[in-house]
Amino acid sequence: MSRFAGKVALITGAANGQGAEEARRFAAEGASVVVTDIDEANGQKVVDTITEAGGKAAWCRHDAGSEADWQAAIALARDRFGGLNILVNNAGIVPRTTIEETSLGAWEKAMAINLTGPMLGMKLAAPLMRDSGGGAIVNVSSAAGLMAHYDAAYTASKWGLRGLSKTASVEFAPWGIRVNSIHPGQIEGTALFSSASPALAQSLRASIPMERAGTPTECADLVLFLSSDESSFITGAEIAIDGGYSAGSTTFMRQQMKKSLGS
């Protein structure tokens, strides 16, 4: 397939997980990809994998909360590949603390990466996307951006990104740029699952009506769809990809987790 032949995509947080999967998939379908992250070793591996398979990719070390880094990443897309059509704001951090436990520094860091970063990306990328003929922006929020979660700063930042995406969809529509947010739930391969005990991992899965976690490939499928002409009349949408997690009640989730943990 070559849905993205002649297109240029910039993906943040693309050194690992679903970001890396998205980068590989975009390249396999014809896009030139700017891979950005703070993890240089794994980011370069993603670029090498793409180029060895015959695709086009470039690496950029990029702190999503830095305006200067954003300017450099977007300049790379323009100078190396001639423009920009697709922006995927995938980078994020998860400080798992309650309101009482959250320090001001931790709060500000979460907002810088999870909310200010996508704002800067859209602000700086949109003019180049307009001049490149329009395109699509996908902001990776979270199921925590649809419901209450205990991790205060993360939840607030993801709700903020959900709202910002809607504002951007209206502002950039005249430029031919669509903007949508996706809201992943529990995804295999994330730090949460990797560090969890078998009992906790099982309890997490039990809180999902479909009784399994999602995969990076499933997230990439949705991102590519929203970036393609197949979704040409979809903008301002918020799409949960969570196996029914956000649709289920908190009571249901607690009951299922208690059953799984035997308490």
UniProtKB/TrEMBL annotation:
Q: Which InterPro entries match?
A: NAD(P)-bd_dom_sf, Sc_DH/Rdtase_CS, SDR_fam
Enzyme Commission designation? 1.1.1.53
- Kindly give the Gene3D superfamilies that the UniProt entry links to this protein: NAD(P)-binding Rossmann-like Domain (3.40.50.720)
Q: Which UniProt keywords apply?
A: Oxidoreductase
UniProt GO molecular function: androstan-3-alpha,17-beta-diol dehydrogenase (NAD+) activity
Any Pfam family matching the protein: adh_short_C2
Domain of life from the UniProt record = Bacteria
The enzyme's main class, written as a single word, is oxidoreductase
Indicate the family of this protein.
Belongs to the short-chain dehydrogenases/reductases (SDR) family.
Kindly give the NCBIfam families that the UniProt entry links to this protein.
PRK07231.1
* Protein name, as recorded: 3alpha(Or 20beta)-hydroxysteroid dehydrogenase
